[in-house]
Amino acid sequence: MALPFTCGGRADCRRAGTPVASTRLDTQAETGSWISDPEDPALVRASVGISVFGTGAIGLEVSGACRYKAVCFEASRGRMSIPARPQPHPEILKIAAYVGGRSDVAGVSGVVKLSSNENPYGPCHSARQAARAALEDSAVYPSGSHSDLRAAIAEVHGLPAEQIVCGAGSDELISLLCRCYSGPGDDVVFTEHGFSMYRISALAAGATPRAARERDRCLDIDLLAEEFSERTRLVFVANPNNPTGTMVTEEDVRRLADAVPPRAILAIDGAYVEYVDGSDGGASLVLARDNVVMLRTFSKLHGLASLRVGWALAPAAVTDVLNRVRGPFNVTAPGLAAAAAAVRDRAYVTHCRRENARWRDWLFSRLSGPALEIDRSQANFLLLRFGSPGTAQAAYVHLLARGVITRKVDEYGFPHALRATVGDEEGCRRLVHGLDAFWAETT
Ligand SMILES: Cc1ncc(COP(=O)(O)O)c(C=O)c1O
């Protein structure tokens, strides 16, 4: 049973309102360290970071400067009591689990999935072949050094292979950066409509996520810099951003790199940068600085989302750290082989980029209007902003019934919007027809 407790610099343990012990809390205490009552060390002991509240135990949750610290005290025996069940560190329970894009609708066949920004044309032919061939050797561990894939990326993009780290999707690299470079007492900064894994990974590392305001759904360097402090360890920006599709210039990114505190890493997430003609995604900035990292993925334009391959370009000191912590065989052999083939097929990359731009422009011209506001997107999706959350929800349901699956983006701070991936011709036409029918029914 959870009992009410007071908290602060000096903490009182109360049972049914009666103080039974009090202790001074050392607000500098490290996670896992012990705090004792100075008057009676045996009486109250606290393990910072352990949440309690088991039956028969008195729990004390301390917040504020102490963050989440917990004291556990068993009144009947006057002894410290460790909860009987395993407890995660307290920040974990603040995480709302990631919700992926929906892929089916009960009772509706022939759906078009526009909810996860996948490539509607799939991977290139050579990537499919390479993945199939690699499956034949499934009994053997994959390469732990990822040397072939790193060499392919290095060759195509003109980058040093030794500064590339591969991950099981860029999700893994985001998580590794947070684990390696932030923890309790540290801040991880991103923007208010930033990709949700930044927040999740920061909390999982025990760090404090800080969301900076954007200006008109776009990264604003000055507003972001307002969140910087000596506690800042990581700054994540996706450029183009998901779910807004907006992008800032290379000059802005350079200015941002100048503004980031020296002890912090700026991670430029280029999950969608392949859709932008002529951008290096921040690679030159990484090579020129010692605190900038670029993240890339094979899940979007390369059409390999299910194989889970991402990569980072990072300063040598950072690649060294990430390589120490990542799983030794974190990317599968089919993933490695398919990704190496995909990055080399430049004609397919150009084809997908062009098709995306063509249908993105078409969608924009057919959908945007007074009732549906849309920013110009640089990525493979559009953020459709309806007049109200109710209209967005009604449109979502209407589209679902027609087998067109878009993405609700309430958790990104857009309850009145839906995000729609730019599909192939059929997918785009079904989206437009679905929304035409929606407006016809509701107006
Ligand atoms: C901005 C951004 N970064 C990273 C990712 C993660 O991609 P993956 O883990 O598939 O490489 C996504 C996926 O949607 C994304 O939108």
Name its key features.
disordered N terminus, binds pyridoxal-5'-phosphate, alpha/beta, 20% strand, 19 strands, Aspartate Aminotransferase, domain 1, globular, single chain, Aspartate Aminotransferase, domain 2, 3 domains, four-stranded antiparallel sheet, 443 residues
Written overview of the protein:
By secondary structure, this protein is an alpha/beta fold. It folds into 3 domains: 10-94, no CATH class; 112-118 and 347-442, Aspartate Aminotransferase, domain 1, CATH 3.90.1150; 125-344, Type I PLP-dependent aspartate aminotransferase-like (Major domain) (Aspartate Aminotransferase, domain 2, 3-Layer(aba) Sandwich). The protein has helices at 125-135, 147-157, 169-181, 196-204, 221-225, 250-259, 283-288, 316-325, 333-344, 346-367, 389-401, 425-442; strands spanning 10-15, 18-24, 34-36, 45-47, 58-62, 69-73, 112-113, 164-167, 187-191, 208-212, 232-238, 265-269, 292-297, 310-313, 373-374, 381-385, 404-405, 407-409, 414-421. α1 runs antiparallel to α9 (333-344), α2 (147-157) runs parallel beside α9 and α10 packs parallel to α12 (425-442). It is globular and about 60 Å long. The protein starts with 9 loop residues before the first strand and ends with a helix. Bound molecules: pyridoxal-5'-phosphate. The site of pyridoxal-5'-phosphate has 13 residues, from α3.
Can you describe this structure in just a few lines?
The chain has twelve helices and 19 strands. Mean pLDDT is 85; it is low at 1-82.
